[in-house]
Amino acid sequence: MNKQVQQNHTDAQFPHMNPVHNPVEDEIDLRELFSVIWQGKWLIIAITAIFAIGSVIFALMQPNTYKSEALLAPASEEQGGGLSALAGQFGGLASMAGINLGGGGGVDKTQMAIEVMKSRQFASQFIQSHNILPELMAADKWDMATDALVYDSELYNPQTKTWLREVKAPFKPEPSMQEAFKEFTKVIAVNSAKDTGMVTISVEHLSPSVAQQWVTWLVEDINKVMKERDVTEAHRSSEFLETQIAKTNVADIRTILYQLIEEQTKTIMFAEVRDEYVFKTIDPALVPEEKAGPKRALICVLGTMLGGMLAVMIVLIRHFVRKED
């Protein structure tokens, strides 16, 4: 009895040490949430409808885009047989001349070509050599009747070929190659299939004919660039080997050097007689007839869902703010 009286006395003095826990208060009342949502149904419907209408208008305002693509196969290296045969014997000597004999430690030529296409240097050369900066940066829409691009009048004047952009320093009215490269990477894709090794180059643009033309140019240019690289390297290696021949009188070493020069000559001859040096075209690019984008139905669905979720959040937040006041 005395213990009970002491306990009651302690509880009366320190009520905070014996809190009453009500698990019902910690649980979310789903019925209350549904009731709040039901009471705010008209606000939810209104906001969702606004977002739905806005997404429809936005989707309809987006111009059609067309994708053209080409399927390529890595070109077989017929000249590689002789080089590979020499790799085991003369690899050390060849490496002094900067010659890759295909002994297995080098970079795959196909993968190198893909990375070159993705590089800033290649993109800049491609844009400048084909003069496609207006089509890349200032195109507004495509006129199907005339198969001509319509340019944004606030960016570019096609009659005078002058740029009219209003930009702040350090930018200029004419886009720089850094700006162009960012846009270039958005419309061009290069993918390699791991199982087959096939390479797909695709371009998505407002004009289907422009998309097809760019894919064709890309295939031609990457073959040309890789060919020029190998030919330049072969000439430089041959000059080095000829210099070494003049410096030695040992017959065996001279024989080895002559064999290396012969292989570099084969590389040059092989490159000169074949246009499709790195990639062979399996399925060339065509002018697409069907649009690739935008996905208007998807835009409308996502816009409506976003509006609905935002409306429910607004109703719930408003309810709990009022409840705490």
TrEMBL record:
Signal sequence, start to end: none
Domain Polysaccharide chain length determinant N-terminal: 26-129
Region of interest (Disordered), residue spans: 1-20
An annotated GO cellular component: plasma membrane
The keyword Transit peptide belongs to this UniProt entry's keyword annotation: no
Transmembrane segment boundaries: 42-61, 297-321
Keyword terms: Cell membrane, Membrane, Transmembrane, Transmembrane helix
GO molecular function, one term: protein tyrosine kinase activity
Residues of the Tyrosine-protein kinase G-rich domain: 280-319
Biased composition (Polar residues): 1-11
Subcellular location: Cell membrane
UniProt membrane topology term: Multi-pass membrane protein
Protein name: Lipopolysaccharide biosynthesis protein
InterPro entries listed in its UniProt record: Bact_polysacc_biosynth/exp, GNVR, LPS_length_determ_N
